[in-house]
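Final paragraph of the annual report: two paired records, presented back to back.
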Amino acid sequence: MPQPSFTTLIVTYNSGNEILNLLDDLHSYASDENVIVIDNASSDETVDVLQEHFPQVQLIQNSANVGYAKAVNQGFDLCNSEYVLLLNPDIRIDSPRLFTEMEKCLKLSRQIAAVAPLQFKNDGGNQYLNFTWSYMTRHTFRLYVSFLLHDKQGSTDPIPVTFLNAGCLLIRRSAFEHVGRLNEKYFLYGEEPDLFLKFKRYGFDCYLLSHVAVTHYRERSLMTRPVLQRLQIRLQAAWNVIDALINGWVGILLHRLTVKKSPTIAGKQRTSYRKRIPDNLS
């Protein structure tokens, strides 16, 4: 099996019931050799099942739950590949074309920072397209509605978006480093909109692929917490997202005002990018 040109990062917390299914998918469709798992002090069998069934996976065991952003940044310190694939442990891979299509999109230009597939949510056996902020534009909302009406017309054209879901996300490592990685002040949630608004601030592009998909069995780890803890986490999550959005858009405004005549690293590549990318990606 040819080795992919990306490293896979997975952050686990009480994910013993999901992680083996995901690693089986990786073994089938890509490779389970270039995988880093950062475990945030799971109290279930996550570490045991990884060591027993996938000893080739590089396992980092944190002595405490340091949060998602800090764990991801930990993993990036160990990566030397051009691209890094972020995966939630409760993702299932539904398409053998997923990884080749995502890589193909990133290779169109160094201007592109990240790419993600559609995400379907599985809730009690019912599967439907998970609504995310990716669909908050005219073209992407039309795509979302077409799925609801079961009349989606297939297209292989990547769709430019501001936000993507980080549950399955292929990132250009140099772009990730350029914008300052994930913001570790957000323990959980908030780091996602913060990252994509930083990409936007520095002139990078992100794309959604509508012809490949994954299934997300969302928040399995969260459901292992007591009810009051889950409520506290959700309230903190709402605040984190609001804080990230405010700071992100203010940062974009200030950047445009203060760096108006001094293009960013990504901005300097804009001309050649426009020449090499088809019109429907502009």
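The closing record of the year follows.
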Amino acid sequence: MDLLEFEDEPGPQDHRARYNLCRAGFGLIGFGLALLGLDSACWLLIFLTHSPTVWNLVHEPWWPWAIGAPITWATLIGSYLLWGRWSDPRWQRPAGLLVMFNMIHVALWVLDLSGELGLRPGKVGHDWFRHQLAEVLNWVEYALIAGLAVDVLEHLGASEAHEAGRRARAFTIAGLTVWAVSFFDMTDWGRGWPLMGRGANRPEFLLLWLLSLLLTAAVVVQLVALCLWVWSQCSTLLQELDQAGQADDLLRSRSESFPDDDPPYKPPRNLPP
């Protein structure tokens, strides 16, 4: 789709601000997802090798601050930078949802570390429910990120991005399905509220957990690649805008065609309108 279809023609500064913020947003999201992939890889190693070294690593007191905090805050700030880059509702709705879901993740992160943050002593409770809520939000966010990245890439002329986005969304749907099966099967519904899990050592639970980790690793790799692709495309566009602006400045210094007012802005050839 053409994200600028219903917009007035922007000026050069509007172009630079929009694509600078878009590049920064996807850069932060890609950074957060890369750390999430590292975390998932560590848990996958624990599952496959039963390594006490990796187990101790992910349970170090600094791990939630060095890994968990950057994941949470980088994806929130990155999604906020994407929100409002285009006024088209087809962009604003998924971008707004991404911001909202990441704000929920921040709230869950604060609850997880409420003791360390000095907000309240002891545990908050509802551990199973909070973990499951974070998981389902993750899978929905993956789909939103893939959709937004593909929209930007296609808008910048990378038509082959559609296939990459389709693969990422397919893994996301598979992961969401695995989460749903695991949640409804492993929740002890007979105990009422608060919800609690049961039978963590059951073979089916371990199998579903392994599938979830593998799917998470697969989709994160694809999303990080998409974010880097957007970063590269936006950087190329900004360089072309800068070169076009320098050419306009050189022409203006040799001509008195526009002594009082700036000439009307015309995007460089082959750039988005």
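The first helix runs from residue 12 to 49. This concludes the annual technical report; the extension proposal builds directly on these records.
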